[in-house]
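Sanity check

After download, print the first record. It should look like this:
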Amino acid sequence: MRPSNPKEKIIFALDVSTLEEERHFVRLLQTRVGQFKVGLELFSAFGPEAVKVVREGGGEVFLDLKLHDIPNTVSRAAEGAVCLGVKMFNLHATGGLEMMRATGERCRLLAGKMNQPQPLILAVTVLTSLDEANLREVGLAGPLSDRVIRLAELAQKAGMDGVVASPQEIVAIRNRCGSNFLIVTPGIRPSFVPPGKDDQKRVLTAGEAIAAGADYIVIGRPIRLAADPVAAMDQVIAEIEEAS
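Expected structure tokens:
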């Protein structure tokens, strides 16, 4: 299940506001990435059509909605992801063991009935935009890394395929959860992007994240805003090839 080709390890974040922009980046990067991330911005505006654009363009979809609600609600929403044919989707690990377990069971049953592969289900640990000071603000004291590892272990116990976690927790999760547990890593800042140019706080380069043990990296803004997105993505691919 773990990708081996450097390009397959890249998930491009389609954080755009129109379907025209989405189609543009799918056409531009389809041969250079393994998946396209459809997140809240696109899905709230266009719903399943945003997924359809990627699929019709020959791409695979990571549906990044970070589901978090009671078990019945999340598991039924996840059935919609199965029907859309996405390769991967996520939910929040803080929703708890029962929510994650119920979602996995429903998705397995529905995928079996539809005779299609079950999407990979990932649990979000702690958002890469947060640091320990942010967690203290909402009443969550203690080392951030400990919280990430605890949530990763809970996700694994619930039968999730892996987690979404910052680059800085990759090694600890890999050591605790083993080689078959997928780690998807946002918070990627390519070596050609100066520090402090985004809202991510716990970051590494693409090469550093892969070398640390990430299976997939998620990258968007540094490519999307580059003068030449294709050339910028090729630099990211080169970083991964060097680290692999």
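If your output differs, re-run the checksum step. Summary of this record's structure: The mean pLDDT is 91.
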